[in-house]
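Bumping my old thread because nobody answered last time. Still need a sequence for this structure:
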């Protein structure tokens, strides 16, 4: 007779652990992608300052920031796991409803930041500005469609 209550308790414990683990995974995924976007913003800021003339243009510093952004831009997709549309996030549910379109935005971000990195190596601000603008448009396009304000 003792086996049935023990098995029931063990099953309940296993299910609660699985649920907690999933919740942790979701929270970790949200924190992961938010951290990456914050790091992108951190590196994007000085580049924007240089583009707008608010910070003296430093080709080496610009390229360093462009390198960081190009690497970071490849990473956020890993943080958009199923179920991570709930919780402390500004991600719209449309990300998961239109995953293919969202993935295209992420691919465009990676492509455009890579192009910005390439052109940043020329040191020619006149060539860099349009590439920087394309990255900004890519960010805005995704935010407009897939991010709660």
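Sorry it took so long. Here it is:
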């Amino acid at each position: 007779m003792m086996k049935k209550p023990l098995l029931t308790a063990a099953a309940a414990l296993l299910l609660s652990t699985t649920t907690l683990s999933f919740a942790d995974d979701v929270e970790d995924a949200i924190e992961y992608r938010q951290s990456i976007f914050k790091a992108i913003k951190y590196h994007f800021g000085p580049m924007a300052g240089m583009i707008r003339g608010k910070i003296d243009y430093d080709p080496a510093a610009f390229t360093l920031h462009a390198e960081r952004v190009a690497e970071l831009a490849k990473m956020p997709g890993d943080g958009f796991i199923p179920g991570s549309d709930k919780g402390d996030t500004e991600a719209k549910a449309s990300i998961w409803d239109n995953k293919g379109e969202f993935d295209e935005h992420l691919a465009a971000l990676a492509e455009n930041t890579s192009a910005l990195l390439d052109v940043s190596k020329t040191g020619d601000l006149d060539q860099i500005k349009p590439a920087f603008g394309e990255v900004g448009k890519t960010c805005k396009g995704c935010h407009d469609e897939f991010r709660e304000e």
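The helical segments are 3-51, 59-72, 94-97, 99-120, 125-146. Let me know if any region looks off to you.
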